[in-house]
Amino acid sequence: MRILIVSDSHGEEKLLHRIVEREGADHVIHCGDFCTDRDRLPRTSLTVVRGNCDWEPVPEEEYWDGGKWRFLVVHGHLHQVKTSLLPVRYRAEELGARIACFGHSHYPLCEQLGDVLLINPGSITQPRGFAHPTFAVLETESESRVRVSYFTPDGAAVPERGGIFDWKPAP
């Protein structure tokens, strides 16, 4: 399974649509601050949450079951992700999620804390503390392994981010 993870597109609908079309993912996760009308988001298999700059009535927190993998999706502003990753990790554990996707800081990171893989795809429009705008692609390689890769909006690989992560998925 191939999952596209984006965040903080801040109204750049055309760019978001180009990325979604080019990547051809099985599912798209948008971690908020899309800053457009909900009906202008790509029409695809999509999980989306509201960020601190959004006005549309979408949930502030969602979970998505992708096969044997449960994902927690939040924007991050309500979980203090600019200060610590522990609140979002603990929330993922409460929900039985093995992967937590969030945005808000505009800084790409991929880190495993305990049994939870934390993914911030960065921002496709306004990077902070990182040289490039970014998004992430998660690919399941087996029932116990995922690969996370980062790219710039034009599709260039960002090899200094991502990696391969192993553990047993929740039953």
From TrEMBL:
EC number: 3.1.4.-
Protein name (record): Phosphoesterase
Pfam families: Metallophos_2
PANTHER family: VACUOLAR SORTING PROTEIN VPS29
Family stated for the protein in its record: Belongs to the metallophosphoesterase superfamily. YfcE family.
Keywords: Metal-binding
Residue span, Calcineurin-like phosphoesterase domain: 1-142
Enzyme type, top EC level: hydrolase
Originating organism: Desmospora profundinema
